[in-house]
Amino acid sequence: MPTTPYAAVDLGASSGRVMTAHVTPAALTLTECHRFPNRPVRTPDGLHWDILALYAGVLDGLRKAGQVRSVGIDSWAVDHGLLDTDGILLGNPYHYRDARTDHVAEQVWATVPQDELYAATGIQYAPFNTLYQLAAARGSAQLAAAKTLLLVPDLLTYWLTGRRGTELTNASTTQLIDPGTGDWAQDVAARAGIDLTLFPPLRRPGDPAGDLLPHVLDETGLTGPVPVTTVASHDTASAVAAVPATEANFAYICTGTWSLAGLELDAPVRSAESRAANFTNELGIDGTVRYLRNIMGLWLLQECQRAWGEPDVTALLAGAAAARPLRSVVDAGHSGFLAPGGMPDRIAAACRATGQPEPRTRAETTRCILDSLALAHRRAIADAARLADRPVDVVHVVGGGARNALLCQLTADACGLPVVAGPAEAAALGNVLVQARADGVVGDRRAMRRLVSDTQPLTRYEPRGDASAWSAAADRAATP
Protein backbone atom coordinates (compact mmCIF):
# COMPACT_ATOMS: atom_id res chain seq x y z
CA MET A 1 0.00 0.00 0.00
CA PRO A 2 1.32 3.52 -0.80
CA THR A 3 2.78 5.46 2.09
CA THR A 4 3.14 8.70 0.16
CA PRO A 5 -0.09 10.72 0.42
CA TYR A 6 -2.41 11.91 -2.31
CA ALA A 7 -2.96 15.65 -2.71
CA ALA A 8 -6.40 17.21 -3.24
CA VAL A 9 -6.72 20.74 -4.53
CA ASP A 10 -10.25 21.76 -3.54
CA LEU A 11 -11.38 25.22 -4.60
CA GLY A 12 -14.59 26.70 -3.23
CA ALA A 13 -16.32 29.98 -3.94
CA SER A 14 -14.89 31.66 -0.83
CA SER A 15 -11.64 29.76 -0.19
CA GLY A 16 -9.27 27.20 -1.59
CA ARG A 17 -7.40 24.47 0.17
CA VAL A 18 -4.72 21.88 -0.52
CA MET A 19 -5.09 18.73 1.53
CA THR A 20 -3.23 15.45 1.68
CA ALA A 21 -4.64 12.04 2.49
CA HIS A 22 -3.19 8.69 3.39
CA VAL A 23 -5.47 6.00 2.03
CA THR A 24 -5.54 2.24 2.56
CA PRO A 25 -8.46 -0.20 2.23
CA ALA A 26 -9.13 0.29 5.95
CA ALA A 27 -7.83 3.78 6.75
CA LEU A 28 -8.41 7.31 5.48
CA THR A 29 -6.79 10.32 7.10
CA LEU A 30 -7.02 13.85 5.73
CA THR A 31 -4.66 16.71 6.60
CA GLU A 32 -5.03 20.35 5.62
CA CYS A 33 -1.73 21.73 4.31
CA HIS A 34 -2.74 25.18 3.11
CA ARG A 35 -5.88 27.30 2.98
CA PHE A 36 -6.16 30.55 1.09
CA PRO A 37 -8.92 33.06 0.36
CA ASN A 38 -10.79 33.21 -2.93
CA ARG A 39 -11.68 36.88 -3.36
CA PRO A 40 -13.52 37.96 -6.52
CA VAL A 41 -12.32 41.16 -8.15
CA ARG A 42 -14.60 43.75 -9.75
CA THR A 43 -13.11 45.62 -12.70
CA PRO A 44 -14.84 48.10 -15.04
CA ASP A 45 -16.03 45.25 -17.27
CA GLY A 46 -17.50 43.08 -14.51
CA LEU A 47 -16.88 40.61 -11.70
CA HIS A 48 -13.99 38.17 -12.13
CA TRP A 49 -12.16 35.39 -10.33
CA ASP A 50 -8.53 36.18 -9.45
CA ILE A 51 -7.31 33.05 -11.18
CA LEU A 52 -3.60 33.86 -10.81
CA ALA A 53 -3.97 34.25 -7.04
CA LEU A 54 -5.74 30.89 -6.95
CA TYR A 55 -2.96 29.26 -8.98
CA ALA A 56 -0.37 30.76 -6.62
CA GLY A 57 -2.33 29.30 -3.70
CA VAL A 58 -2.26 25.89 -5.36
CA LEU A 59 1.53 26.07 -5.81
CA ASP A 60 2.01 27.25 -2.22
CA GLY A 61 -0.13 24.36 -1.02
CA LEU A 62 1.76 21.75 -3.01
CA ARG A 63 5.01 23.15 -1.64
CA LYS A 64 3.69 22.78 1.92
CA ALA A 65 2.30 19.33 1.21
CA GLY A 66 5.70 17.84 0.44
CA GLN A 67 6.15 14.79 -1.73
CA VAL A 68 2.83 13.39 -2.95
CA ARG A 69 1.81 10.35 -4.96
CA SER A 70 -0.53 12.25 -7.27
CA VAL A 71 -2.62 15.43 -7.46
CA GLY A 72 -6.30 15.99 -8.23
CA ILE A 73 -8.19 19.27 -8.69
CA ASP A 74 -11.85 20.09 -8.11
CA SER A 75 -13.68 23.42 -8.04
CA TRP A 76 -17.02 25.07 -8.61
CA ALA A 77 -18.72 24.66 -12.00
CA VAL A 78 -19.64 26.61 -15.18
CA ASP A 79 -16.85 29.25 -15.13
CA HIS A 80 -13.94 29.05 -17.54
CA GLY A 81 -10.91 30.65 -19.14
CA LEU A 82 -10.36 31.27 -22.83
CA LEU A 83 -6.96 30.60 -24.43
CA ASP A 84 -5.56 32.00 -27.66
CA THR A 85 -3.73 30.07 -30.37
CA ASP A 86 -0.54 30.05 -28.29
CA GLY A 87 -2.33 28.68 -25.23
CA ILE A 88 -2.21 32.02 -23.40
CA LEU A 89 -5.10 33.00 -21.15
CA LEU A 90 -7.02 35.87 -22.73
CA GLY A 91 -8.39 37.32 -19.49
CA ASN A 92 -9.43 36.54 -15.94
CA PRO A 93 -12.45 34.21 -15.94
CA TYR A 94 -15.77 35.89 -15.25
CA HIS A 95 -17.53 35.14 -11.98
CA TYR A 96 -20.86 33.35 -12.29
CA ARG A 97 -22.48 36.11 -10.22
CA ASP A 98 -21.56 38.73 -12.84
CA ALA A 99 -24.62 40.43 -14.30
CA ARG A 100 -23.61 40.17 -17.96
CA THR A 101 -25.76 37.05 -18.41
CA ASP A 102 -28.96 38.73 -17.18
CA HIS A 103 -31.72 38.17 -19.77
CA VAL A 104 -29.38 36.28 -22.12
CA ALA A 105 -31.29 33.02 -21.71
CA GLU A 106 -34.24 34.43 -23.65
CA GLN A 107 -31.94 34.91 -26.66
CA VAL A 108 -30.91 31.25 -26.52
CA TRP A 109 -34.50 30.07 -26.08
CA ALA A 110 -35.42 31.88 -29.30
CA THR A 111 -33.47 29.21 -31.21
CA VAL A 112 -33.59 26.34 -28.69
CA PRO A 113 -36.89 26.53 -26.75
CA GLN A 114 -36.58 25.92 -23.05
CA ASP A 115 -38.48 22.62 -23.08
CA GLU A 116 -36.29 21.26 -25.89
CA LEU A 117 -33.14 22.43 -24.14
CA TYR A 118 -34.12 20.59 -20.96
CA ALA A 119 -35.14 17.47 -22.84
CA ALA A 120 -31.70 17.39 -24.49
CA THR A 121 -29.46 18.33 -21.53
CA GLY A 122 -31.51 17.87 -18.35
CA ILE A 123 -29.89 20.96 -16.86
CA GLN A 124 -31.90 23.39 -14.76
CA TYR A 125 -32.22 27.00 -15.73
CA ALA A 126 -29.59 29.17 -14.08
CA PRO A 127 -28.54 32.47 -15.65
CA PHE A 128 -24.86 31.63 -15.23
CA ASN A 129 -24.76 28.27 -17.06
CA THR A 130 -21.79 28.14 -19.44
CA LEU A 131 -24.16 28.07 -22.40
CA TYR A 132 -25.52 31.49 -21.44
CA GLN A 133 -22.06 32.83 -20.62
CA LEU A 134 -20.92 31.95 -24.14
CA ALA A 135 -24.05 33.50 -25.61
CA ALA A 136 -23.32 36.68 -23.64
CA ALA A 137 -19.76 36.72 -25.02
CA ARG A 138 -20.87 36.40 -28.63
CA GLY A 139 -19.34 39.18 -30.72
CA SER A 140 -16.65 40.00 -28.14
CA ALA A 141 -13.02 40.36 -29.15
CA GLN A 142 -12.01 37.83 -26.52
CA LEU A 143 -14.28 35.06 -27.78
CA ALA A 144 -13.28 35.86 -31.38
CA ALA A 145 -9.62 35.31 -30.44
CA ALA A 146 -10.28 32.15 -28.40
CA LYS A 147 -9.13 28.77 -29.66
CA THR A 148 -9.65 26.78 -26.45
CA LEU A 149 -12.08 26.91 -23.53
CA LEU A 150 -11.02 25.35 -20.22
CA LEU A 151 -13.27 25.08 -17.18
CA VAL A 152 -11.55 26.30 -14.01
CA PRO A 153 -10.11 22.97 -12.77
CA ASP A 154 -9.11 22.05 -16.32
CA LEU A 155 -7.33 25.40 -16.67
CA LEU A 156 -5.31 24.83 -13.51
CA THR A 157 -4.54 21.27 -14.61
CA TYR A 158 -3.28 22.67 -17.92
CA TRP A 159 -0.97 25.11 -16.14
CA LEU A 160 0.39 22.28 -13.98
CA THR A 161 0.86 19.72 -16.75
CA GLY A 162 0.76 21.48 -20.13
CA ARG A 163 -2.03 19.10 -21.24
CA ARG A 164 -5.62 20.07 -22.02
CA GLY A 165 -8.83 18.19 -21.39
CA THR A 166 -12.46 18.68 -20.36
CA GLU A 167 -13.55 16.69 -17.31
CA LEU A 168 -17.03 15.22 -17.72
CA THR A 169 -18.73 15.89 -14.36
CA ASN A 170 -17.93 19.57 -14.67
CA ALA A 171 -18.70 19.64 -18.39
CA SER A 172 -22.18 18.34 -17.59
CA THR A 173 -22.97 21.68 -15.90
CA THR A 174 -22.31 23.65 -19.10
CA GLN A 175 -25.78 22.76 -20.49
CA LEU A 176 -24.00 21.33 -23.52
CA ILE A 177 -23.82 17.64 -22.49
CA ASP A 178 -26.44 14.93 -22.97
CA PRO A 179 -26.60 13.21 -19.54
CA GLY A 180 -27.94 10.04 -21.12
CA THR A 181 -24.94 9.51 -23.42
CA GLY A 182 -22.26 11.39 -21.46
CA ASP A 183 -21.26 13.16 -24.67
CA TRP A 184 -21.77 16.58 -26.21
CA ALA A 185 -25.30 17.64 -27.17
CA GLN A 186 -24.30 18.45 -30.74
CA ASP A 187 -27.73 19.64 -31.88
CA VAL A 188 -28.12 22.04 -28.95
CA ALA A 189 -24.69 23.55 -29.58
CA ALA A 190 -25.31 23.95 -33.31
CA ARG A 191 -28.69 25.62 -32.82
CA ALA A 192 -27.33 27.90 -30.10
CA GLY A 193 -24.31 28.88 -32.21
CA ILE A 194 -21.75 27.37 -29.82
CA ASP A 195 -18.51 26.07 -31.32
CA LEU A 196 -17.80 22.79 -29.51
CA THR A 197 -14.29 22.64 -31.00
CA LEU A 198 -13.36 25.15 -28.29
CA PHE A 199 -13.53 22.27 -25.79
CA PRO A 200 -10.64 19.78 -25.61
CA PRO A 201 -11.49 16.06 -25.53
CA LEU A 202 -13.57 14.78 -22.64
CA ARG A 203 -11.90 13.10 -19.68
CA ARG A 204 -13.53 10.96 -17.01
CA PRO A 205 -12.73 10.59 -13.31
CA GLY A 206 -9.74 8.33 -12.94
CA ASP A 207 -8.19 9.21 -16.30
CA PRO A 208 -4.55 10.38 -16.28
CA ALA A 209 -4.18 14.12 -16.93
CA GLY A 210 -0.40 14.39 -17.26
CA ASP A 211 2.59 14.95 -14.98
CA LEU A 212 3.69 18.12 -13.22
CA LEU A 213 5.87 20.20 -15.53
CA PRO A 214 9.58 20.67 -14.67
CA HIS A 215 9.12 24.32 -13.68
CA VAL A 216 6.20 23.33 -11.41
CA LEU A 217 8.41 20.74 -9.74
CA ASP A 218 11.06 23.42 -9.22
CA GLU A 219 8.48 25.86 -7.84
CA THR A 220 7.02 23.34 -5.37
CA GLY A 221 10.18 21.43 -4.46
CA LEU A 222 8.63 18.11 -5.47
CA THR A 223 10.54 15.28 -7.09
CA GLY A 224 9.06 14.02 -10.32
CA PRO A 225 7.37 12.37 -11.88
CA VAL A 226 4.21 13.48 -10.04
CA PRO A 227 1.07 12.55 -11.97
CA VAL A 228 -2.10 14.60 -12.01
CA THR A 229 -5.19 12.38 -11.96
CA THR A 230 -8.53 13.47 -13.36
CA VAL A 231 -11.01 13.43 -10.47
CA ALA A 232 -14.68 14.41 -10.37
CA SER A 233 -13.62 18.00 -10.90
CA HIS A 234 -16.99 19.55 -10.08
CA ASP A 235 -16.69 19.87 -6.31
CA THR A 236 -20.26 18.69 -5.80
CA ALA A 237 -19.53 15.53 -7.79
CA SER A 238 -16.50 14.89 -5.59
CA ALA A 239 -18.55 15.57 -2.45
CA VAL A 240 -21.32 13.18 -3.51
CA ALA A 241 -18.70 10.50 -4.19
CA ALA A 242 -17.74 10.78 -0.51
CA VAL A 243 -21.27 10.69 0.94
CA PRO A 244 -20.94 8.04 3.70
CA ALA A 245 -24.15 6.24 2.72
CA THR A 246 -24.50 2.60 3.68
CA GLU A 247 -28.17 2.44 2.65
CA ALA A 248 -29.73 2.62 -0.80
CA ASN A 249 -32.49 5.17 -0.24
CA PHE A 250 -30.52 8.23 0.76
CA ALA A 251 -30.67 11.89 -0.16
CA TYR A 252 -27.76 14.26 0.11
CA ILE A 253 -27.28 17.96 0.74
CA CYS A 254 -23.88 19.35 -0.20
CA THR A 255 -23.65 22.50 1.90
CA GLY A 256 -21.44 25.55 1.72
CA THR A 257 -21.86 28.75 -0.22
CA TRP A 258 -24.57 26.79 -2.05
CA SER A 259 -26.82 23.98 -0.89
CA LEU A 260 -27.18 21.25 -3.51
CA ALA A 261 -29.96 18.91 -2.43
CA GLY A 262 -31.04 15.79 -4.24
CA LEU A 263 -30.55 12.12 -5.11
CA GLU A 264 -28.01 9.92 -6.88
CA LEU A 265 -29.70 8.17 -9.80
CA ASP A 266 -28.75 5.74 -12.54
CA ALA A 267 -30.50 7.73 -15.28
CA PRO A 268 -31.62 11.34 -15.81
CA VAL A 269 -35.17 12.58 -15.18
CA ARG A 270 -36.09 14.92 -18.03
CA SER A 271 -39.85 15.19 -17.69
CA ALA A 272 -41.76 18.44 -18.13
CA GLU A 273 -42.61 18.30 -14.41
CA SER A 274 -38.93 17.99 -13.55
CA ARG A 275 -38.14 21.03 -15.68
CA ALA A 276 -40.93 23.03 -14.05
CA ALA A 277 -39.49 22.12 -10.64
CA ASN A 278 -36.06 23.34 -11.85
CA PHE A 279 -34.15 20.16 -11.11
CA THR A 280 -30.84 19.47 -12.78
CA ASN A 281 -29.27 16.23 -14.04
CA GLU A 282 -25.53 16.62 -13.59
CA LEU A 283 -23.14 13.71 -13.97
CA GLY A 284 -21.27 11.98 -11.17
CA ILE A 285 -18.70 9.23 -11.01
CA ASP A 286 -19.39 5.84 -12.63
CA GLY A 287 -22.06 7.25 -14.94
CA THR A 288 -24.37 8.25 -12.10
CA VAL A 289 -26.65 11.28 -12.26
CA ARG A 290 -26.74 13.94 -9.58
CA TYR A 291 -30.42 14.85 -9.63
CA LEU A 292 -30.57 18.00 -7.54
CA ARG A 293 -31.79 21.52 -7.00
CA ASN A 294 -29.55 24.53 -6.36
CA ILE A 295 -30.40 26.50 -3.21
CA MET A 296 -28.67 29.74 -2.21
CA GLY A 297 -27.11 28.08 0.84
CA LEU A 298 -24.90 29.74 3.43
CA TRP A 299 -24.18 32.51 0.90
CA LEU A 300 -27.15 34.27 2.54
CA LEU A 301 -25.41 34.27 5.93
CA GLN A 302 -21.97 34.99 4.46
CA GLU A 303 -23.31 38.11 2.75
CA CYS A 304 -25.04 39.24 5.95
CA GLN A 305 -21.79 38.78 7.86
CA ARG A 306 -20.03 40.90 5.25
CA ALA A 307 -22.65 43.64 5.60
CA TRP A 308 -22.35 43.50 9.40
CA GLY A 309 -18.55 43.80 9.44
CA GLU A 310 -17.69 40.08 9.77
CA PRO A 311 -19.01 39.30 13.27
CA ASP A 312 -18.16 35.94 14.85
CA VAL A 313 -20.38 33.24 13.38
CA THR A 314 -20.48 31.29 16.67
CA ALA A 315 -22.18 34.21 18.39
CA LEU A 316 -24.61 34.62 15.48
CA LEU A 317 -25.60 30.97 15.67
CA ALA A 318 -26.03 31.11 19.43
CA GLY A 319 -28.32 34.10 19.03
CA ALA A 320 -30.25 32.33 16.29
CA ALA A 321 -30.73 29.24 18.46
CA ALA A 322 -32.37 31.42 21.11
CA ALA A 323 -34.53 33.35 18.62
CA ARG A 324 -38.17 32.53 17.95
CA PRO A 325 -38.38 29.71 15.39
CA LEU A 326 -40.18 30.16 12.08
CA ARG A 327 -41.08 33.78 12.87
CA SER A 328 -40.23 34.83 9.30
CA VAL A 329 -39.03 32.75 6.36
CA VAL A 330 -38.07 33.43 2.74
CA ASP A 331 -37.64 31.42 -0.44
CA ALA A 332 -33.96 30.46 -0.11
CA GLY A 333 -33.83 29.37 -3.73
CA HIS A 334 -35.00 32.64 -5.23
CA SER A 335 -32.73 34.29 -7.81
CA GLY A 336 -33.27 37.65 -6.10
CA PHE A 337 -30.64 36.58 -3.59
CA LEU A 338 -28.00 35.67 -6.21
CA ALA A 339 -26.14 38.99 -6.50
CA PRO A 340 -23.82 40.24 -3.74
CA GLY A 341 -24.57 43.23 -1.54
CA GLY A 342 -27.27 44.44 0.84
CA MET A 343 -28.39 40.98 1.92
CA PRO A 344 -29.95 41.90 5.31
CA ASP A 345 -32.13 44.53 3.60
CA ARG A 346 -33.12 42.13 0.81
CA ILE A 347 -34.14 39.47 3.33
CA ALA A 348 -36.19 42.03 5.27
CA ALA A 349 -37.86 43.18 2.04
CA ALA A 350 -38.77 39.61 1.12
CA CYS A 351 -40.37 39.09 4.53
CA ARG A 352 -42.27 42.35 4.18
CA ALA A 353 -43.51 41.37 0.70
CA THR A 354 -45.07 38.18 2.09
CA GLY A 355 -46.70 39.96 5.04
CA GLN A 356 -44.30 38.60 7.67
CA PRO A 357 -42.47 40.50 10.40
CA GLU A 358 -39.13 41.88 9.25
CA PRO A 359 -36.12 40.53 11.16
CA ARG A 360 -35.04 43.32 13.53
CA THR A 361 -31.81 41.92 14.95
CA ARG A 362 -28.86 39.93 13.67
CA ALA A 363 -30.12 36.91 15.64
CA GLU A 364 -33.54 37.14 13.99
CA THR A 365 -32.02 37.51 10.53
CA THR A 366 -29.71 34.52 11.10
CA ARG A 367 -32.63 32.42 12.37
CA CYS A 368 -34.68 33.45 9.34
CA ILE A 369 -31.86 32.28 7.05
CA LEU A 370 -31.43 28.91 8.77
CA ASP A 371 -35.15 28.20 9.00
CA SER A 372 -35.50 29.15 5.33
CA LEU A 373 -32.63 26.89 4.27
CA ALA A 374 -34.15 23.98 6.19
CA LEU A 375 -37.46 24.59 4.40
CA ALA A 376 -35.70 24.71 1.02
CA HIS A 377 -33.89 21.46 1.85
CA ARG A 378 -37.22 19.88 2.77
CA ARG A 379 -38.90 21.02 -0.42
CA ALA A 380 -36.02 19.89 -2.66
CA ILE A 381 -35.76 16.41 -1.15
CA ALA A 382 -39.53 15.84 -1.21
CA ASP A 383 -39.73 17.01 -4.83
CA ALA A 384 -36.75 14.90 -5.90
CA ALA A 385 -38.21 11.78 -4.29
CA ARG A 386 -41.56 12.38 -5.99
CA LEU A 387 -40.18 13.21 -9.42
CA ALA A 388 -37.70 10.31 -9.44
CA ASP A 389 -40.21 7.95 -7.79
CA ARG A 390 -37.77 6.89 -5.13
CA PRO A 391 -38.24 6.83 -1.34
CA VAL A 392 -35.81 8.58 1.01
CA ASP A 393 -35.00 7.10 4.42
CA VAL A 394 -32.10 9.31 5.52
CA VAL A 395 -30.52 12.62 4.54
CA HIS A 396 -26.73 13.02 4.43
CA VAL A 397 -25.43 16.55 4.96
CA VAL A 398 -21.85 16.96 3.77
CA GLY A 399 -19.60 19.99 3.26
CA GLY A 400 -19.09 23.04 5.46
CA GLY A 401 -22.70 23.14 6.67
CA ALA A 402 -22.20 19.75 8.35
CA ARG A 403 -20.41 21.69 11.12
CA ASN A 404 -23.51 23.86 11.67
CA ALA A 405 -25.38 21.84 14.30
CA LEU A 406 -28.38 24.17 14.30
CA LEU A 407 -28.83 23.96 10.52
CA CYS A 408 -28.51 20.16 10.60
CA GLN A 409 -31.09 19.81 13.38
CA LEU A 410 -33.49 22.21 11.65
CA THR A 411 -33.08 20.23 8.42
CA ALA A 412 -33.97 16.99 10.25
CA ASP A 413 -36.98 18.71 11.82
CA ALA A 414 -38.18 20.19 8.53
CA CYS A 415 -37.71 16.99 6.52
CA GLY A 416 -39.06 14.68 9.20
CA LEU A 417 -36.09 12.42 8.49
CA PRO A 418 -32.86 11.57 10.29
CA VAL A 419 -29.88 13.62 9.16
CA VAL A 420 -26.33 12.26 9.20
CA ALA A 421 -23.88 15.16 9.18
CA GLY A 422 -20.34 14.83 7.89
CA PRO A 423 -17.78 14.78 6.55
CA ALA A 424 -17.24 18.53 6.29
CA GLU A 425 -14.40 18.08 3.78
CA ALA A 426 -16.38 15.74 1.54
CA ALA A 427 -15.15 17.25 -1.73
CA ALA A 428 -11.50 16.75 -0.79
CA LEU A 429 -12.22 13.20 0.37
CA GLY A 430 -14.01 12.35 -2.86
CA ASN A 431 -11.10 13.86 -4.74
CA VAL A 432 -8.46 11.67 -3.07
CA LEU A 433 -10.63 8.56 -3.15
CA VAL A 434 -10.91 8.76 -6.94
CA GLN A 435 -7.13 9.09 -7.10
CA ALA A 436 -6.70 6.12 -4.78
CA ARG A 437 -9.18 4.06 -6.79
CA ALA A 438 -7.30 4.85 -10.01
CA ASP A 439 -4.21 3.65 -8.14
CA GLY A 440 -5.87 0.35 -7.21
CA VAL A 441 -5.91 1.11 -3.47
CA VAL A 442 -9.69 1.16 -2.93
CA GLY A 443 -12.53 -0.62 -4.68
CA ASP A 444 -15.85 0.44 -6.11
CA ARG A 445 -18.14 3.31 -5.16
CA ARG A 446 -19.72 1.30 -2.35
CA ALA A 447 -16.31 0.49 -0.88
CA MET A 448 -15.31 4.15 -1.08
CA ARG A 449 -18.41 5.19 0.85
CA ARG A 450 -17.98 2.45 3.43
CA LEU A 451 -14.42 3.66 4.01
CA VAL A 452 -15.67 7.20 4.64
CA SER A 453 -18.42 5.93 6.96
CA ASP A 454 -15.96 3.80 8.94
CA THR A 455 -13.20 6.41 9.32
CA GLN A 456 -14.75 9.89 9.45
CA PRO A 457 -16.59 11.52 12.40
CA LEU A 458 -20.35 11.67 11.74
CA THR A 459 -23.21 13.11 13.80
CA ARG A 460 -26.80 11.89 13.62
CA TYR A 461 -29.78 14.23 14.18
CA GLU A 462 -33.26 12.81 14.73
CA PRO A 463 -36.32 14.87 13.73
CA ARG A 464 -38.20 16.57 16.53
CA GLY A 465 -40.92 19.15 17.06
CA ASP A 466 -44.19 19.86 15.26
CA ALA A 467 -44.25 18.91 11.59
CA SER A 468 -47.35 21.04 10.99
CA ALA A 469 -45.43 24.19 11.94
CA TRP A 470 -42.99 23.53 9.09
CA SER A 471 -45.85 22.94 6.65
CA ALA A 472 -47.42 26.26 7.61
CA ALA A 473 -44.06 28.04 7.30
CA ALA A 474 -43.55 26.57 3.83
CA ASP A 475 -46.64 28.39 2.61
CA ARG A 476 -45.30 31.68 3.96
CA ALA A 477 -41.92 31.20 2.29
CA ALA A 478 -43.48 31.19 -1.17
CA THR A 479 -42.41 34.16 -3.28
CA PRO A 480 -45.40 36.44 -4.01
What is this structure's SSE topology?
Layout: E1 6-11, E2 15-24, E3 27-37, E4 41-43, E5 46-48, H1 51-65, E6 71-74, E7 80-83, H2 105-109, H3 114-121, H4 130-137, H5 141-145, E8 148-151, H6 152-161, E9 166-167, H7 168-171, E10 177-178, E11 183-184, H8 186-192, E12 202-203, E13 208-211, H9 214-220, E14 227-229, H10 235-241, E15 250-255, E16 259-265, H11 272-276, E17 280-283, E18 289-295, H12 299-307, H13 313-322, H14 343-353, H15 362-388, E19 394-399, H16 405-415, E20 419-421, H17 426-438, H18 445-455, E21 459-461, H19 467-477
Parallel strand pairs: 1-6, 9-12, 15-19, 19-20
Antiparallel strand pairs: 1-2, 2-3, 4-5, 7-8, 10-11, 13-14, 15-16, 16-18, 17-18, 20-21
Structural key phrases:
480 residues; 7-stranded mixed β-sheet; 4-stranded mixed β-sheet
Can you walk me through this structure?
By secondary structure, the chain is an alpha+beta fold. It has 19 helices and 21 strands. The strands form seven sheets. Strands 17-18-16-15-19-20-21 form a seven-stranded mixed sheet, sandwiched between helices. A four-stranded mixed sheet has the order 3-2-1-6, sandwiched between helices. β19 (394-399), α16 and β20 form a beta-alpha-beta unit. α10 packs across α17 (426-438) and α15 packs across α16 (405-415). The longest helix has 27 residues, at 362-388. The protein is globular and about 60 Å long. The N and C termini lie far apart (58 Å). The mean pLDDT is 96.
